[in-house]
Amino acid sequence: MAALEAFDAVDLIHVKRDRGELSTEQIGWLVDAYTRGYVADEQMSAMTMAIFLNGMTRREIRDLTMAMIASGERMSFAGLGKPTTDKHSTGGVGDKITLPLMPLVAVFGAAVPQLSGRGLGHTGGTLDKLESIPGWRANLSNEEMFAQLRDHGGVICAAGSGLAPADGKLYALRDITGTVEAIPLIASSIMSKKIAEGTGALVLDVKFGSGAFLKDIEKSRELARTMVGLGEDAGVATSALLTNMNVPLGLAIGNANEVRESVEVLAGGGPADVVELTVALAREMLALVGQVDVDVEAALRDGRAMDKWRDVIRAQGGDPDAPLPVARETHTVLADRDGVLVEQQALPFGIGAWRLGAGRARKQDPVRHAAGIDLHAKPGDTVVKGQPLFTLSADEPERFPRALEAVEGAWRVGAPGEPVQDGGPLIVERIGR
Ligand code: URA
């Protein structure tokens, strides 16, 4: 005889539909029964839509997060002998920060377990970028990951499917039912994976703006506050930076070109915005494990961060000296007049790079590591007619027209003195203790 179920999914849907509050037991059962396949996709879609429309209390969000963690394994770095500190970004165009950040923080003796993902749609994935380095391996066993953290202080690898498996199933369902952008669901999805990963400290880079997952700053702020609360409740020292993603981050959008730009930052150079965010996040990650007043910039200037990068890339089979892939074809767009670049919208440039082959439309698609866009000017720069503004790179020239279509109207050279898009700060606010 089948075991008696504690609740009926339809009753729980009624509660949320009618703006009621689900109990801890009800949420625990719902997530478990959905993971087991007892609660059907149709029922869970009704539930996620009810949550999307009516929200959840802080207690309900915490229970949902804990139930998703309980659906899989929970890792622990307790035996490592050093503090662990991690970063999660909600994703954006040209966001390669994890690459210079991980070695930079590891220089100071903290261990950085970066369990990362692949890109889907216009936002790139850290693993896709690193896989443009010949030999580099994303898939490590738990033992290999632990050993690398112990011996080298940092690792960037694929998150195993054992962490919060309920989230994988739920996220795929939300993706096809228009329920991704619900703050209780996003917060529990991100934080269940990060808490299950076992990091002691976590810094969240929560983006807003045209290239971000949530465009509206108020929604991003609410997401940041919710996630910081979940982290603290679970005993993970957590803070968040609210950062602007209206303009692409840095000058490179793609995979191999983003690795190149990250290496420039590690060599003490690189675009000012990438350096600013890398340094701010490194300070935050170190402060959460008790290291304040560390001279993070010095480690970029004096080669320590670069040495650590080479060390961790080699530890995962990569050759830090091997040439990175270069696309067979390029197409450069020139300034159409003398003036100032007043606009450069992140989302269309992200879509353009994706159409060149840098991203994937379906999970199983491969990415073209050499494809992408290199910007030669940023908003506020003075330009002269005929000066290169950006270059598209692809292996197949037939990809250029659709990429050009994506960026059409997304950049503009204006007269000197015209207001420039997003003259405001990159880092708008810090949220946390
Ligand atoms: N990233 C996640 O991991 N989950 C979400 O719900 C949204 C973004």
Automatic annotation (TrEMBL):
EC number per UniProt: 2.4.2.4
PROSITE patterns on file: THYMID_PHOSPHORYLASE (PS00647)
UniProt keyword Transferase, yes or no: yes
Gene3D superfamilies associated with the record: Nucleoside phosphorylase/phosphoribosyltransferase catalytic domain (3.40.1030.10), Pyrimidine nucleoside phosphorylase-like, C-terminal domain (3.90.1170.30), Transferase, Pyrimidine Nucleoside Phosphorylase, Chain C (1.20.970.10)
InterPro entries: Glycosyl_Trfase_fam3 (IPR000312), Glycosyl_Trfase_fam3_N_dom (IPR017459), Glycosyl_Trfase_fam3_N_dom_sf (IPR036320), Nuc_phospho_transferase (IPR035902), PYNP-like_C_sf (IPR036566), PYNP_C (IPR013102), Pyrmidine_PPas_bac/euk (IPR018090), Pyrmidine_PPase_CS (IPR017872)
Entry superkingdom: Bacteria
Domain Pyrimidine nucleoside phosphorylase C-terminal: 340-414
Top enzyme class: transferase
GO molecular function, one term: thymidine phosphorylase activity
Key words of the record: Glycosyltransferase, Transferase
Family of the protein in this entry: Belongs to the thymidine/pyrimidine-nucleoside phosphorylase family.
Subunit structure: Homodimer.
Name by which UniProt lists this protein: Thymidine phosphorylase
Species the sequence originates in: Luethyella okanaganae
